[in-house]
Write a structure and sequence with these properties.
The protein is mainly α. The chain is 66% helix and 0% strand.
């Protein structure tokens, strides 16, 4: 190469980071779509995915918020279970 563009090593590193990004997004999406997680667990999974993605691409938080955050939020809303109540619902009586 003539030194004007990125090196082969830099390109290979970028491709590797993109493969990792794709794997994180695909895995997170798949786990969320299985629908077995409660809301808190799903939120924790998305937070962990976000942290890992921003480790790979620290300067791309804006892109994450525009592209992936809405996608993950929709999946959490659609597939995450609501937390179970601790016990049966209580109906409080009206005072006489």
């Amino acid at each position: 190469m003539n030194g004007d563009g990125p090196t082969e090593e830099a390109l290979a590193e970028e491709r590797a980071r993109l493969r990792r990004l794709r794997a994180i997004v695909d895995l997170t999406t798949s786990v969320l779509q299985q629908g077995g997680l409660e809301r808190g667990e799903a939120d924790a999974l998305v937070a962990a995915a976000r942290d890992r993605i921003l480790e790979l691409f620290p300067d791309k938080s804006g892109a994450y918020e525009i592209i992936l955050a809405p996608r993950f939020a929709r999946l959490v809303d659609e597939f995450a279970r609501r937390p179970r109540r601790a016990g049966p619902a209580r109906v409080l009586p009206f005072p006489p």
